Amino acid sequence: MLVSPETLISGSLPVSIPPSARRVLEELGALDSVDRAGLYPNLGNSVIWADDPPRSEMFSNDSKGYHTDLATLEQILLEVAAQAGVIVHYGHSARSAEQTRTGWSVRCDGAEGSRVIESSWVIDASGRHGVIARGEGRQVDRSTTTLAIIQRWKREGGWPEADRHFTYIESYDTGWAWSVPLGDDLRCYTVMIDQRETELAGCDLSDILDRELQRTVHLGRSREGAQPVDQAWACPASLYKATRYARPGLILAGDAGSFIDPLSSFGVKKALSSGWLAGIVANTALIDPDMTEASVNFFDSREKLVYSRYRESSAPFFQSAAQSHGTSYWIERAQAAKKAEVVASDSGL
Hints:
By secondary structure, this protein is of the alpha+beta class.
């Protein structure tokens, strides 16, 4: 049984899915549906980072990923789940959950009122909201506070053919920016800033986005001839992780358990893999209760390792940006990533 809320503004969040996610989608039985959906192809990245020369990185062996938004991807996966026999409660949001002697009692709200769902196992896949996850001991990385500001832009006639299917990524002194193509003539621009260092009070988010993009070398200029198609909006993008990702009867999957830096470009793949494994763990425990403890311990160890490795992989980018830009934004992030590496090493991850 799956509870799916009405699409919120975060549904327009752009997602860049690498070709390596195709294997996970295939295991989930969703690859054919995703391919049939006609999502905009993801062929690689164009990167301007720190003092390195600009470079374009095409995915190898003619493989391709996907560019889309969160709402579109979720709708495809919901349809796949429904076709597989999952009971989907559309238009409902899980508001609270109480553990009982026999499992869980989850209260959900919808347009037609509230309903309570009883279950022996719950997989919290509610993302950053973390209906249950927030009460399970989430550790927030308070050394950095990141805010994403997002806006879609349309360019008559489209962007240059050579750039159309590439994600733009660029660092600058007070943050970093990226742009995901959603069509030949449609791109989503995002800046990742530190809200502690940026004056936000009384400022229009579109003005802040424009101001930050003007600090870049390439991304700001790439909007020439384009016009915004909506108002800019913001969402938190700070890092966090769970102290424990699973215990008998409960699994924290995807962003409900942890949030990795978007710089990795593997957030969607991480969430898909986490959800897939969570389903396997719950199924194992239901058909063989003696395997419950081993299963949840495996999931917990695996999620901790995944978070640690993604954190480690982003450290060189922070360090090179800190050396190049020399600002508190990058120095603090480089120091935090280095500290996380030491902690992970001491923990044996």
